Model the fold of this input.
Amino acid sequence: MITMTKVQAKTPQKLKTQSRSQASDERTAWIMAAPAFLGLLLFIAAPFIIAIFFAFTNYRLGSPLPLDFVAFQQFVRIFSDEAFQQALVNNSLFALFIVPLQCAIALGLALLINRPLKGMVLFRTLFFMPVIFPMALVAIVWELIYAPGANGILNAFLSTVTLGYWQPLDFLHHPDLALPAIMILSLWQGVGFQMIIMLAGLQSIPQTFYEAAAIDGANRWQQLIHITLPQMKNTIIFVALVTSILAFRLFDQIWILTQGGPNRATTTIIFETVRAVFKRQDVARGSAMSVVFFLVVLAVTLLQRRISRQEREIR
Amino acid sequence: MIRNRFVFYKPILFTFFIMMVSFLLTGCSREKDTDGLGRTIISVWFHTGRPEEKQVMENQVKRFNESQDKIKVRLTLIPEGDYNTQIQAAAADGKLPDLLDLDGPYVYNYAWKKHLIPIDHLLPHEIKKDLLPSIIEQGTYRGKLYAIGTFDSGLGLYGNRKFLSAVAAHIPTGPQNAWKIDEFEKILAALAQKDKDGKVLDLRMDYRGEWFTYAFSPAIHSGGGDLINRDNFQNATGILNGPSAVKAMQHIKVWFAKQYVDPNTDTNSFVNGRVALSWCGHWEYPRYSTALGNDLVVLPLPDFGNGTKTGMGSWCWSITSNCKNPQRAMQFLLFLLRPTEILAMCRANGAVPARKSAIAASTLYQDNGPLHLFARQLEGGYAVPRPQTPAYPVITSVFQQAFQDIRHGRDVKQALDQAASMINQDIKDNKGYPDL
Done:
């Protein structure tokens, strides 16, 4: 506002210098941004364009044979590959469960640790800690938790809780339990990240809203429904978006714990891609998979944006 | 004023920017070929598995460098986990060292791509004669020798005598009287009956990747099948999914289905006495023998119909096509192949020495040594090399998948059908891996 009035007050002469210096500002801005743009171009855009190119060839890592164009053959192959089909299903299932669950739990945790109590910093740190752990470490720890046989931590715990009725299960090798097991450990590892974003959102809600609501006689639950959630809407949309993208990127825990098994119950798009490229040196097939991956993530993102925009219009 | 000062900074910024770009675009420059003393520099890459191996390697390089003044070996250690990926990337980029060690069956793919050079002519005849036949067999691709290991591997069944005598199992004395598969399965059933949780067999399911092909393709061979038709390495269908291979894998599937196999997540199933038998390699001998003492017996794998078969092959040395002075690189390799050096390495990793003269001097592997069986298997033709074809990375990848699927109950024929067709697809995609 202040700058506006200043500009209006300036003489034409001053305006001219202003516009010239604006142009110079702009140039400086471009120069300053250039390294970042270059980085984006070199490390994000270029590899992706190359991947699209490779997807239409028969390129194999380091192959001395000439490169052939095979049109859509790689895509035909991956879509008739039952492992890849299963990967698409698994990724969708994973996202379908993990996105709402993780957002809800993150919001719940954020609400809990947003209270001005003593020692809250400790809880915040504890909840956030798994995010800092490398997934490799988390996966190994959970491998011990899920260990089969009566001596596995989870099996032993369930056996104690059920007074011995529990029959030990091999969670990570059970066709119906492997994916849920992966979901739970991913949730445990990732929820701290979403929690911190939710917490930031919560803290940006002006306290006066709650005070006003309290004066109007709204109880805690009403405050949550009518103040917190509407105020948090953008944060929640953002978190949901990020979580679904992360959900589609599921890889580390699969690689370490299940290798996509049992019988592809936990295979994912990225896992299949990495296997194609680094185990079978089939770069073309991997590229085709990553193009599909990109399109899926793009579609999910657009869909989510659409839904959230519609909600805004209704409001 | 501030803006003016910024104008002054601009050239500096610009230079900085150009520097960054040129950093990004150029990468490192080519290394020098000789050092300050005029010695030829031979760059060597070595995988680091266990610390003892690394230590021996470092000592060997040091001793070699001090023993002469023509060659300086420069050693780079690369962690085993990423080793193959790193080599692939370096090869694609033309940045391979002069000499490097490779995991045996990957040699053929690099040889086909001409990243490696044949070394027959650099290997003195008397050393070649002294090497285990398995070393030559697995280092040879299309009639030329590309790789030489200083040690080989042994694979068999470790047994706990206490459990075995409790079910009155006869204990094979060598590969010639290995358990027939029916006998082996009777023993498993008897052991399981006396066992608390019925899990009596350890197949090292805690291992990953190459283990499954290394350890279980011998079962297929023993049943009369193979991973691929070895006449021309062009076809896997009818071989990998042929009746013999399917039958052999069917046996293994049954062991899982009957819950004989311990998942061994803690790697201790055998040393803690939870299982009676462990299907494993030479590398576990020190730990197993410490835990079991005189109760440990080393046995051949069961005979699936065509006599017992076992795996072979381990890390081996190759000279790359980047090497400007193969004779000098070979000099270091010949140093590593001296019986004393072989024995030094084998003391560290427990592997089978690559030379018969070194085996004779090895307390573990000589005639009455506790692991003599492994040397005998390699010398006596019981060991089968993994297929010497550039398609091997694909073969092993799809076989591992098939093994996992079968373990989890998938129909054996279906799993092997799919594996075979994927191998054939790869060979077709590569136009049969023609000679270049």
